[in-house]
């Protein structure tokens, strides 16, 4: 499989190349040059497979030429062996129509583990072949950071620099990052929002001075969902859930708490691969750029408002570019032009083909604090389920989407409620406990560096601490 950039001028790469590159050299995001498609009978044949076997089936077309099926199986077995539930991503019924897909049984209690446990092993596998060294620079609103650090801490060929917006992640999220003591882990608390941190990370990918500072021996990669491998691994659980609910003979809808548009884009990929998806509901908090874009075509970023669902406090959604590229006829030059406009003015209008294409599969909802709390209360009363704030936003959108009652609606439960225990306690009055294995999280000592929200300060820090590549 070859991958092309959404902005049309970076070289096409194979799976190994895009995994190690992270972001394309023209500033675009890599997508497969075509969507592999399964027939109905191939999808029916996936029913009943273990999570690892399903992952191998779904991901094989994407890794062809870079990994054998055996290598992929071995990596998946090790990655998903670290999950605390045998089903890896169990499905829980709430009522006749509503379901939760629990994605938080990995080591750091968020859906990010599903992809990052695999990505850490992919990096190691590919780097061992060339005996090379990688510098990972990432931005997090809390969950990517902890999952990525867990996935790469202590790995010899990798340094990780993780930027989080100072004071804007939950205390559990921060401690999951800052209490990890490994020489290759560097936590940076940055003044500003997640969007500011994400913009700095993207800038570093094409910073010639940075490469020069290491005599050209600076190999940077990404753990954010700009890295294609992240999304590829997330496609699998859409198949897992839909198969359990009757696919391919029955259509299923998904409601996805959304920020950077990575998780829901993985649902779009599943649909392109032949999975019968009735609808993908993009559920946002009050940082609603995606809801506005999908309902009015206006993709314009305002300032980020801190909310009880901090991981979704995002206004510039990286992966939306992948969707717009695909819906706009895969015209790299036009996409580059559209994104240049957005980068200079922080606003753009979707074209008619982008709007109409999106409307065929996506709908959206903006969910405020009171509505989120309402969904938490409903889940507690109806089914004894404690939801985290992000999942509650997804569930509220699912229950108000007005879908045919015969269509099952699966809300992606993206985090364990204990990661956001203050917000959950404020909304419901009860405080979820951390799993036993994390019981001492608040006794561990923290280590992080505080930096101003200035690119130069971050670049200087990374430059000083990164190990050169070979
Ligand atoms: C708990 C949680 N829910 C939802 C999201 C939004 O997912 P995405 O950024 O893939 O849209 C995030 C962050 O990415 C998250 O950490
Ligand atoms: N919510 C995310 C933000 C980064 O998103 P990513 O999926 O692109 O890594 C987080 O928790 O850090």
Describe the structure.
The chain has a domain at 86-107 and 228-428: 3-Layer(aba) Sandwich (Rossmann fold), CATH 3.40.50.1100. By secondary structure, it is of the alpha/beta class. The chain is 44% helix and 15% strand. The protein contains 19 helices and 16 strands. The protein is globular. The longest helix is centred in the N-terminal third of the chain and has 19 residues, at 112-130. Strands 4-5-15-10-11-14 form a six-stranded mixed sheet, with helices on both faces. A five-stranded parallel sheet has the order 9-6-7-8-16, with helices on both faces. The two termini are 27 Å apart. Bound molecules: pyridoxal-5'-phosphate and ligand LJ64HWYM. Residues 140-145, 194, 224-225, 259-260, 262, 311, 318 line the site of ligand LJ64HWYM.
Put the structure in a nutshell.
44% of the residues lie in helices and 15% in strands.
Give Rg in angstroms.
Answer: 21 Å
* Silhouette: globular
Helix content: 40-55%
Number of helices: 19
**How many individual β-strands?**
16
- Could you tell me which ligands this complex binds, including any ions or cofactors? pyridoxal-5'-phosphate, the ligand N[C@@H](CCOP(=O)(O)O)C(=O)O
Task: Give the second-level CATH assignment, the architecture of the domain at 86-107 and 228-428.
Answer: 3-Layer(aba) Sandwich
- Strand arrangement across the biggest beta sheet: 4-5-15-10-11-14
Entry keywords:
470 residues, alpha/beta, six-stranded mixed beta sheet, 19 helices, 16 strands, 15% strand, binds pyridoxal-5'-phosphate, binds the ligand N[C@@H](CCOP(=O)(O)O)C(=O)O
